[in-house]
Specification:
Blueprint (H helix, E strand, L loop, with lengths): L17 H9 L3 H20 L9 H9 L7 H17 L8 H16 L12 H11 L5 H16 L3 H5 L6 E4 L4 E8 L6 E6 L2 H14 L4 H4 L8 E2 L4 E2 L13 H7 L4 H10 L14 H13 L3
Antiparallel strand pairs: 1-2, 2-3, 4-5
Length: about 300
């Protein structure tokens, strides 16, 4: 396979089969599997060029690879690369290669970035003054998209959650507190070394926008209420959310489809599918850049009011 997006090889001393590789990746979360495919592809291609065996991974080879980058990538990218490679390596039953040598190398690179004052992280794209402008301009709007986007922006501002975490919020994650007139929001945080549950108390102002959204979409089915995404695509013709059965909703992310695109045999995949089903992730969820899209759209409207 020559396509850089495809898995070049997941090999080991006993010639691990493609079926083993499929079993390794298929039960990962979609984004985790995608990251590990990309990292393994890059690593395997580099090893092939240098006459090395990709697995088991050795600290000496990783050091050589990182030094060969000559500072062309940031420390955050290197750390992500090492973490993905370590996960695949350990899943194959090999010992952890992240010894003192690798840890020291990471510290050296981090020190270099500190000296150069290189800052990495997620930027906050708007200020409280910006949000107040949107609120004053749009608080009387009956357009469901305006109501949804304003609530989504406030939740993002107060929680600093990642875009995907905001889009995954379900109505059941919210609990109304009568004594404070605020919502408590429970969210599973996944982009850390350990997954964790976080609870946020939304401000009265933010809670007001969220409550208006829930009341506007008229959730009345208590059995399915908690399983619906809080922020969903809007049917502009009806000014309502699409029904859960609508073909207009996102079909979600299929890890099986991604693995086929990565070059794995459909026959092997069918064999595994007959043994166990893997459901699609994030069915019906908003597009990946929805938070920025929401702010840009509302800012454009506010400028005309």
């Amino acid at each position: 396979m020559t396509d850089k997006t495809k898995l070049v090889a997941i090999s080991r001393t006993d010639d691990m089969s493609a079926l083993d590789a499929l079993k390794l990746l298929r039960f990962r979360r979609y984004n985790t599997a995608r990251s590990q495919l990309r990292v393994t592809s890059v690593w395997s291609a580099w090893c092939a060029r240098h006459g090395l065996t990709p697995f088991p991974v050795t600290a000496v080879d990783v050091e050589r690879y990182i030094n060969g980058l000559n500072g062309s990538v940031k420390m955050a990218t290197i750390s992500h690369f090492i973490a993905c490679l370590s996960s695949v390596n350990s899943s194959l039953g090999f010992p952890d290669f992240r010894n003192v040598l690798i840890k020291a190398l990471v510290q050296v690179w981090r020190a270099r970035e500190n000296e150069k004052k290189i800052v990495t992280g997620q930027a906050l794209p708007f200020l409280i003054s910006d949000l107040n402008i949107l609120r004053r301009s749009l608080h009387k709007s009956d357009d469901l998209r305006d109501i949804r986007d304003l609530a989504m922006i406030w939740v993002g501002f107060e929680t600093l959650l990642r875009n995907v975490e905001i889009r995954r919020i379900k109505t059941g994650d919210l609990k109304w507190q009568n004594d404070t007139s605020c919502y408590l929001l429970d969210v599973m945080r996944t982009k850390t070394s350990l997954s964790s549950n976080l609870t946020f108390q939304l401000s009265p102002q933010c809670s007001q926008h969220v409550r208006r959204l829930i009341e506007t979409v008229e959730y009345t089915d208590t059995e399915t209420f908690g399983h619906r995404f809080l922020f969903q695509p809007v049917n502009i013709h009806t000014n309502r959310y699409f029904p859960s059965t609508s073909s207009k909703l996102s079909r979600g992310k299929s890890i099986d489809r991604m693995l086929v695109k990565a070059g794995f045999s459909e026959g092997l995949l069918t064999q595994l599918q007959n043994e166990s089903k893997v459901s699609r992730e994030d069915v019906g969820m908003l597009s990946s850049n929805s938070l920025n899209q929401a702010f840009a759209r509302l800012w454009g409207i506010a400028g005309k009011v």
